[in-house]
Known about the structure:
The complex is a heterodimer of chains A (252) and B (277).
Chain A: E1 3-14, E2 17-28, E3 32-37, H1 43-50, E4 54-55, E5 58-63, E6 66-67, H2 73-80, E7 83-86, H3 98-109, H4 114-127, H5 143-154, E8 161-165, H6 173-190, E9 193-197, H7 201-207, E10 210-215, E11 220-225, H8 227-233, H9 237-243
Helix pairs in contact in A: 3-4, 3-5, 6-7, 8-9
Chain B: H1 3-6, E1 9-10, H2 17-22, H3 27-50, H4 57-67, H5 72-97, H6 103-141, H7 144-150, H8 155-159, H9 161-193, H10 198-208, H11 211-238, H12 245-275
Amino acid sequence: MEKVIKVQDLTIGYGTLTVLDKVNFHVEKSEIFGILGGSGCGKSTLLKHLTGLYLPFEGDVQIFGQSIINCEDDERRTLMRKFGVTYQGGALFGSMTVAENIALPLQEFTDKSAEEIKQIIKEKLAMVDLEGCGPMMPSELSGGMRKRAGLARAMALNPSLLFFDEPSAGLDPITSAELDRLIKRLRDDLGTTIVIVTHELDSVFSVTDRVIMLDKNIKGIAADGSAQNLRDRSENSWVREFLSRAGMKFTN
Amino acid sequence: MSDLEKTSTRTGLGKSIEEFGDVSRSFYTDLRVVLMFIGDITRISGHLIRHPQKMRWNDVFYYMNLCGSQALPIVAMICLLMGLIMGFQGAVLLRTYGAELYIVDLVGFTILKEMGPLMVAMISTGRAGSAFAAEIGTMKINEEISALATMGIEPSRMLVIPKLLAMIVVIPLLTVFGAVCGILGGFLVGSGLMGIPAAAYYNRTVQVLTLSAFNIGIIKSLVFAVIISLVGCFRGFQASADAQGVGRATTSSVVVSIFLIVVADALMAVLCYVLGY
Ligand SMILES: Nc1ncnc2c1ncn2[C@@H]1O[C@H](COP(=O)(O)OP(=O)(O)O)[C@@H](O)[C@H]1O
Ligand SMILES: [Mg+2]
């Protein structure tokens, strides 16, 4: 299997605080990969390092076989255009309409005409069930709609790799399930590789193929495998507990 | 490895300005971050001069309107009042010497070279600089800055350069406008209170106001425009992600900006004196 992301001996943190110490894992092509763990174990921090927003203390992250750590700023930006990231609150640019948000990467990085861009916006909005919301401002959207609009923007350049930070946080169960279906459809229809940070057990079991569980105490990966497998057969009792309903209250 | 080198650094925009905002560190580190930010802006400006089609012109016009056109009433008001105040102050003194006409020199020079640029800079710090800090700070909290960066767009190209360019254009224009209003204020006192004929006031104004005084005012306003925009944006990027973060960033942008404006003004006053202007 082709490895889309390869993480080697990655040590990350802030200042003198080490959040994760020498972690190793990889993500395969067309896989839905979950990053799980309790509050404050470093899920968001890891995601920021995977997407090249921060440089680690040590180690390397390779995306599509290219290091996002050991490269020039220009090269990093070029690599960043090949994947999409959706943020917890959608991170739409508040001064632009939804359509302008989606148009931004297209205007910046392609030579497409205004007509073509319009077509793409329409297509992407349809994909996330937001037909007709193009002229709306982000402040006029609900939380779930903002996330979906953020996803439409992340997909503007047709990336083959998507990152999600807590896609279901703050959503009602029905909206959250819809988003899960959308994520699954992206992978099934387009073969997109998807990395999800989540603590929502429903999503974990319904969408992920494989997960890693981060543990604050060991500053590393406590378990690696399919969520069902880990819940039923992990040697680590904390992992089993976390993934069973009883563990819910320990998550954020 | 020292602690400093071990710090997880942000890529892209001035590398690490955000973290350094959260954790206050040595003066040396802060200075390094500021210099990196300025270096970043300089590099991107250079790039944009060579590729002007990459400039977000709509944003530039938006900020020119926000920081320029919309500031006209308040600038007119304050500069007119400054002219009036200076006129009144001067009137009392000059009358005792029978040198009423010198009110023109007093008000004209002071407004053009000193008070005009300074007042416009103060107003713009309160209106524009604080708005820049709040806007960028809010964007940071909403992860919009991260979203920009992971799109492969340099946040400073999107967010700083249009503001900087707009300010460099509108602040000198506002300053000229403010100077005219200030001189009008002086004229109201001169002709209304002291009985100087309008024609005499006008002639004297044209006669005494030199090109070099005008140039000094413009140069000052350019320096102030750069200070206000960069401090506002920089503080915005540094905003910490808690509820008070944006508020603190905004307050700090105003305080730092006013401080730097006054320091720059003093330095330029010394420079002008040394150069004999
Ligand atoms: N900007 C920051 N500066 C310093 N420490 C941070 C920062 N962001 C997060 N941390 C710390 O890093 C650890 C991991 O945080 P995070 O990655 O946000 O956890 P999670 O997303 O798993 O809840 C926490 O202990 C948190 O306090
Ligand atoms: Mg988190």
